[in-house]
């Protein structure tokens, strides 16, 4: 769970960096998209490097989901399927100190998984194309983000990712043994908030810039 | 002060239970929560009714026997105390207070507010010990312990095994308890020979007992009467990962279940 989660966080950071290239214009962005496929050439065939990354990510996603189901099943068995709400008293349903993020890990994860499918169909395979078909990744992206509901769906997904990372990044590091003192716990939580905010904001800047006319095809 | 208690009443293991309202009048704000239950039980007994079953022993906050979920919080609203050290001054006159037993799959309710916590004992049996020759106490300076390690080990050793961490955990995990025991022994020189086998055996037992997995939410440490810190879970995971690396080639699958093995495999019929 922790290792695969961290691999995906690393991917998100690189992905976000790539998205910000939208600000450099069509030539630069499409060039970047092209060079993702020539990565590692001539040692690797065309698209070889990209496929290695795709396989690593796919294995990570599947392992992450499998781990989540294992944890969920164990949690259900240990709490009669009712988790933190297993007491008759309704006065401490939100626990003593737990974060909102920690409540939304499972359903947030489902939301993110559904979004990823939609996202790949939209911008990778070009199966669904709000805003029109184009061979240019730049044009596809900009056309898509000129539509308000596309931007809205991305916003919802990125907020879900933000909450998921707020708890997930901290929990991954702590599970791997990084939490060694009260001070360290504070620092790791601050780091998790920072990572969540950077990724959420970093991904939302390009779509909103497009929506408000800052970038045009 | 006068209060109303809504108490989980259950006649026996596996039987259906429900919340029953009991009024307790004329109690002192200086009474402990358990003393209020004592008063209630005297009145119930005098009235010919079944008294409320609950666990308690030292009533000094050090034995780990008492434990009630009060208004949905393990050991009640006051931080860092056991139920016996919670006093009625923490409540207001006229309050309605919900009282329930610990709830977790591995903690079956025996009666009313009493649960069977022997699952925690079995985790200890699996590896929460050190093998040392007994006899007279060794010279204290013969084994040197760095001060920071001694303090961290002692902090972890203050765990009284009450089970509040499990009761509070949304996943029903005993990771804080497990982590406290593994940190306590793993930080001290005397705990080193069995450090790997202890970590593997105890976490395997923890999982086999049906406790949930830890997802680092932190409710456990928030209700812990001994303020065991969440870091013990990280330390436990470190020991488990290290042990897996050490045992990686020899050992496949979870380590052998040692629970009761030493006792059960002793010479029979002697």
Automatic annotation (TrEMBL), chain B:
Q: Which GO terms describe its biological process?
A: aerobic respiration; respiratory electron transport chain
Q: Which residues form the 4Fe-4S ferredoxin-type domain?
A: 150-179
UniProt KW Disulfide bond keyword: no
- Required cofactor names: [2Fe-2S] cluster; [3Fe-4S] cluster
Give the residue ranges for region: Disordered: 247-270
Provide the alphabetized UniProt keywords: Iron, Iron-sulfur, Metal-binding
Q: Which InterPro entries match?
A: 2Fe-2S_ferredoxin-like_sf, 2Fe2S_fd_BS, 4Fe4S_Fe-S-bd, 4Fe4S_Fe_S_CS, Beta-grasp_dom_sf, Helical_ferredxn, SDH/FRD_Iron-Sulfur, Succ_DH/fum_Rdtase_N
Which PROSITE patterns does this chain map to?
2FE2S_FER_1, 4FE4S_FER_1, 4FE4S_FER_2
| Molecular function terms, GO-annotated | 2 iron, 2 sulfur cluster binding; electron transfer activity; metal ion binding
**UniProt-listed NCBIfam families:** PRK07570.1
Q: Which family does it belong to?
A: Belongs to the succinate dehydrogenase/fumarate reductase iron-sulfur protein family.
Protein name listed in UniProt: Succinate dehydrogenase/fumarate reductase iron-sulfur subunit
């Amino acid at each position: 769970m922790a290792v695969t989660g961290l691999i995906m966080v690393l991917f998100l950071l690189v992905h976000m960096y790539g998205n910000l290239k939208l600000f450099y214009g069509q030539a630069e962005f499409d060039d970047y998209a092209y060079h993702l496929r020539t990565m590692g050439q001539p040692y690797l065939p065309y698209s070889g490097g990209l496929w290695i990354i795709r396989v690593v990510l796919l294995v990570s996603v599947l392992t992450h989901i499998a781990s989540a189901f294992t944890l969920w099943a164990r949690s259900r068995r240990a709490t009669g399927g009712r988790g933190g709400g297993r007491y008759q008293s309704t006065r401490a349903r939100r626990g003593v100190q737990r974060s909102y993020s920690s409540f939304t890990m499972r359903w947030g994860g489902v939301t993110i998984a559904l979004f990823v499918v939609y996202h790949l169909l939209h911008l990778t395979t070009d199966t669904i194309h709000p805003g029109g078909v184009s061979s240019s990744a730049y044009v596809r992206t900009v056309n898509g983000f000129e539509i308000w509901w596309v931007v809205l769906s991305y916003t919802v997904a990125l907020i879900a990712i933000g909450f998921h990372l707020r708890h997930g990044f901290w929990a991954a590091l702590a599970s791997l043994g990084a939490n060694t003192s009260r001070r360290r716990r504070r620092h790791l939580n601050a780091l998790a908030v920072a990572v969540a905010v950077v990724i959420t904001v970093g991904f939302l800047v390009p779509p909103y810039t497009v929506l408000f006319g800052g970038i045009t095809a | 002060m006068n209060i109303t208690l809504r108490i989980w009443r259950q006649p026996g293991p596996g039987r259906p239970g429900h919340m029953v309202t009991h009024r307790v009048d004329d109690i002192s704000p200086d009474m402990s929560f358990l003393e209020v239950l004592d008063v209630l039980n005297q009145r119930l007994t005098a009235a010919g009714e079944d008294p409320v079953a609950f666990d308690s022993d030292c009533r000094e906050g050090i034995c780990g026997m008492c434990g009630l979920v009060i208004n949905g919080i393990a050991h009640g609203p006051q931080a860092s105390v056991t139920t016996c050290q919670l006093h009625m001054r923490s409540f207001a006159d006229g309050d309605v207070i919900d009282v329930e037993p610990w709830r977790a799959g591995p903690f079956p309710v025996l009666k009313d507010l009493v649960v069977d916590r022997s699952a925690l004992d079995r985790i200890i049996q699996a590896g929460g010990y050190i093998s040392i020759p007994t006899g007279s106490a060794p010279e204290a300076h013969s084994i040197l312990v760095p001060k920071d390690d001694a303090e961290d080990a002692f902090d972890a050793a203050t765990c009284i095994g009450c089970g509040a961490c499990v009761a509070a955990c949304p996943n029903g995990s005993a990771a804080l308890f497990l982590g406290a025991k593994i940190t306590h022994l793993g930080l001290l020189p005397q705990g080193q020979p069995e450090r790997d086998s202890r970590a593997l055996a105890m976490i395997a037992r923890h999982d086999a007992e049906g406790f949930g997995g830890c997802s680092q939410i932190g409710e456990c440490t928030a209700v812990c009467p001994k303020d065991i810190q969440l870091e013990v879970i990280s330390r436990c995971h470190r020991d488990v990962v290290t042990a897996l690396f050490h045992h990686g080639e020899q050992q496949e699958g979870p380590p052998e279940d040692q629970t009761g093995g030493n006792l059960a495999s002793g010479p029979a019929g002697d």
